[in-house]
What we know:
With 329 residues, the chain is α+β, with helices and mostly antiparallel strands. It has helices at residues 3-10, 18-25, 29-33, 36-41, 65-71, 74-77, 92-98, 152-167, 232-235, 244-265, 268-276, and strands at 46-49, 53-56, 80-89, 107-115, 133-142, 173-175, 179-182, 185-196, 202-211, 284-289, 292-301, 307-312, 315-319, 323-326.
Amino acid sequence: MDAEQLLAALADGKAHSGEDLARAFGVTRAAVWKHIPKLADWGLAVDAVPGVGYQLRRGIDLFDAGALRSALAPEVAARVAALDIFTEIESTNRYLLAAPPPSPGMLGACIAEYQTAGRGRRGRRWSTPLGAGLCLSVAWQFAAAPAELSALTLAVGVVVRRVLARVAGVEIALKWPNDLVWDERKLGGILLELTAEGQGGCHVVAGIGINVALPAELLPLLSDWPRGAVDLATACAPRGAPPRAAIAIGLIEELTELFASYAETGFHAYRDDWRAADYLRGRAVKLDEAAGHITGTALGIEADGALLIETAPGARRRIIAGDVSLRSA
Length: 329
């Protein structure tokens, strides 16, 4: 047996005696015990009660690649070249960037239960306990870089917003360029990376991280925002967050449609939705740059997704990339 097998046995959140586990796996009880520390490394709390057994403090709806693929709409499943699921991996984005790009018109997808080196913008670390979040990356190869490639991150944000509204019944805001926001708190983020391919091709990987159901004591540590982070379980209270698989299926279906049409339609099909969800519009903001920072008022986005900041009456600054935050009073 290994730690992944033990995790699968305990994922239901019920108590399992060491004797029963040992018998099921054909090992000794000591062999079962030696894998418990690995579950702790994954951020899981395991109670060991004498005379009762081992029990996760919360059950986990582990991902299953076969079940996910069979739940996809047939026309989408036909476009998914690979759907890889890992219990532990450094980074889903890094994995897909290192892999050969999918064939044109096909999507590659990777989901991790736990990331050891998950990243956000500017290399910031993003990590949640195993099974507490959604770590999904998808890969697509464009024949040539789309004209509005710089706005693709924003379009992905609109897709996430649409899926969460439909699957979870939650309306989120979008903070330029890549943050998911609910109740003034960070719910997750998007990391888009790309590499240029031969003959002008463009290999794009979009990573999406969403806090789904986290221990309450962990939320304040996940974000440097004034009000910290939030998870879907909180946003969906009292009914609770939907299964992570339902969110993943919705995202894979919608992202496949986005990438398949983006070279032709560009950001136009997503622009109005993004503007309706704009978290920064009308607020005092600060832009951090290598040379320092500037302050002003966010005026919203232009047609190509660039952010406009009014730095002084009548003076506007067009921002293509940068780290923008709300300015404290």
